[in-house]
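Dear Dr. V.,

Thank you for agreeing to look over these. As mentioned in my earlier message, I'm a first-year student in the group and I'm still getting used to reading structure tokens, so any feedback on how I've presented them would be very welcome. I ran two proteins. I've put each sequence directly above its structure. The first is here:
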Amino acid sequence: MERKVMIQNETGLHARPASSFVKVASQFTSDINIEFNGKLINGKSILNILSAGLQKGAEIKIIATGADEKEAVEALENLINSKFNE
């Protein structure tokens, strides 16, 4: 399952939001990736997410594959749309 979302929080996916993303992603058994500018980023790796430099306004695609893929995509989409509660 996949869904496009836009990073909305002012600071993009810096350390705290990236940590929140990985924490939520790691709760699921599905493989979770982020597609950005044609590259696949491991959604459970904080280093990969931080090195992607995802800024406010970046459109990403959350891709989950596995038994709980629907729940994983929805949880991560909700997290991003909440602007990581910042």
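The second protein is here, in the same arrangement:
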Amino acid sequence: MTEIVRTEGVLGGDPRIEGTRVGVLHIYELVVEGDYPPADVADQFGVSLGEVYTALAYYHEHPETVREVRRRHADAEERLAEEALAPPRPRQ
């Protein structure tokens, strides 16, 4: 049976399909937000259709975890955008 795991140092600790680097959020974004068929997403990531559905179930069963992951991603994107727009600091 497919398990969703979180491992520090793998995919930033985000929930993922065990034995892969395929995150729950990756699956959700493609299937639900991107409107791709689950079978196509499974094929794209090289996982089973059951693993795709397990990831989707995890997304819906763990809303707090998903909110925390989305918050971390948004913070990282904001930080990177600020750094990209800021002029380099002179070396001292």
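From my reading of the second output: The chain has one domain: 4-85. The CA atoms of residues 55 and 79 lie 28 Å apart. Does that match how you would interpret it?

Kind regards,
E.
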